[in-house]
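Subject: design request, 421 residues
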């Protein structure tokens, strides 16, 4: 266990990294135990370990202090990477200023609330189509029928990806999530991959497939530019503002993050409304609560459960000494249930306010680029449920994903029911 001068005697964390733990949902009892411990707790992991940051205020402090807690040193996942693997896999998430600032500026204007507003009606058309099909079929797998296709089709519009490729990109995203757990099903050479897995994001050959797809689409946009984000990225690459590797990783991140995280929120939101139909009725009676309802869906879901930083120098957090080079892991799943910040944190409350959750990270310069997009997509889908008076009934147990990183659900059977008066 690392030590530094003046450190408090650290507690020891219950295991929260074994992916199989999450097949029964987030192990909140273990996070409750860590939040209650004084200072930080040290969590063994592989050949070393990390400081588990589980309280709301401590997560915010780490997030907003990149001068001490770096995203560019090491990796933002739990494990360490060799230098060549880190260089090959590095995306905007794994950078500090000034590189992070440069990369973010290339795409930030595409994700402002004003820009996202321009996609609202297209999103509504997609939501209407999906919900109509869901209702007409008498229900089915909510993930396959609604939660997965909605965000991937919207991010494809923004990127300029042909609509016919939606199912393929959902398939690749599913395999990437699988790569965060301990049960991969792909052979290393799947999709024609010849790259060592340690050099690929998520250690998955699906990343190779996504790289190839992004490069092919980029070549098509060079030949035939369009009003889309891929064209903007290609222009940046051709001007020297973006390296070929940065282009690949940017495309990879935008597809995955623009799809998987919102999908997860839409699944857990649906589960919450199915378990507590009174909350959906409340929204129908009080549509002015839609904004707070969207925030509560995001808090409740916490699609990405953690991110890692690495200490640049010796420091202290929560009275615990942290040595330069120590891993510090922010557990958003825990902070979003911190009773010191959220009254009755295990209640799903569409009127919860304030609700300054960490579904998009803990703030600071790594605040999620897609926050406005996710909010818009959730808002539109909930509005369409309310407009049609569609309630939801769970018809089977959710098949959760064995992952300590993404709060994923592979499938869950749902049935549409008429919303009770």
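Subject: RE: design request

Done. Sequence follows.
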């Amino acid at each position: 266990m690392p030590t530094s001068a003046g450190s408090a005697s650290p507690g020891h964390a219950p295991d929260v990294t074994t992916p199989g733990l999450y097949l029964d949902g987030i192990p909140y009892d273990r996070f409750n135990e860590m939040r209650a411990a004084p200072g930080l707790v040290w969590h063994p992991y592989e050949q070393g370990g990390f400081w588990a940051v589980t309280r709301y205020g401590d997560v915010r402090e780490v997030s907003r202090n990149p001068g001490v807690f770096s995203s560019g040193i090491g990796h933002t996942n739990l494990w360490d990477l060799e230098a060549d693997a880190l260089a090959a896999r590095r995306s905007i998430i794994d950078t500090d200023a000034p590189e992070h600032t440069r990369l973010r500026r290339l795409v930030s204007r595409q994700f402002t609330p004003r820009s996202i507003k321009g996609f609202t009606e297209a999103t509504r058309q997609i939501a209407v189509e999906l919900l109509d099909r869901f209702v007409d079929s008498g229900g089915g797998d909510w993930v396959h029928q609604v939660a997965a296709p909605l965000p991937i089709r919207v991010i494809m519009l923004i990127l300029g990806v042909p609509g016919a490729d939606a199912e393929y990109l959902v398939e690749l995203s599913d395999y990437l999530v699988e790569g965060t757990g301990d049960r991969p099903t792909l052979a290393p050479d799947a999709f024609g991959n010849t790259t060592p897995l340690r050099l690929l994001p998520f250690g998955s050959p699906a990343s190779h497939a996504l790289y190839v797809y992004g490069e092919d689409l980029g070549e098509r946009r060079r030949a035939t530019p369009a009003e889309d984000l891929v064209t903007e990225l290609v222009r940046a690459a051709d001007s020297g503002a973006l390296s070929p590797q940065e282009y690949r990783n940017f495309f990879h991140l935008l597809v995955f993050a623009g799809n998987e995280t919102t999908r997860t929120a839409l699944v857990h939101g649906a589960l919450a409304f199915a378990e507590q139909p009174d909350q959906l009725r409340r929204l129908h009676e009080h549509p002015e609560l839609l904004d707070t309802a969207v925030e509560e869906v995001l808090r409740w879901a916490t699609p990405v459960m953690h991110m890692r930083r690495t200490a640049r120098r010796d420091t202290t957090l929560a009275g615990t000494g942290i040595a330069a080079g120590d891993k510090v892991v922010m557990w958003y799943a825990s902070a979003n249930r911190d009773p010191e910040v959220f009254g009755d944190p295990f209640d799903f409350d569409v009127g919860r306010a304030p609700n300054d959750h960490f579904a998009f990270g803990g703030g600071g310069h790594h605040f999620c680029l897609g926050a406005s997009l996710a909010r818009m997509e959730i808002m539109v889908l909930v509005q369409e449920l309310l407009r049609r008076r569609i309630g939801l009934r769970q018809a089977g147990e959710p098949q959760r994903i064995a992952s300590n990183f993404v709060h994923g659900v592979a499938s869950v059977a749902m049935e549409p029911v008429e919303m009770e008066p």
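Confidence is low (pLDDT under 50) at residues 3-9.
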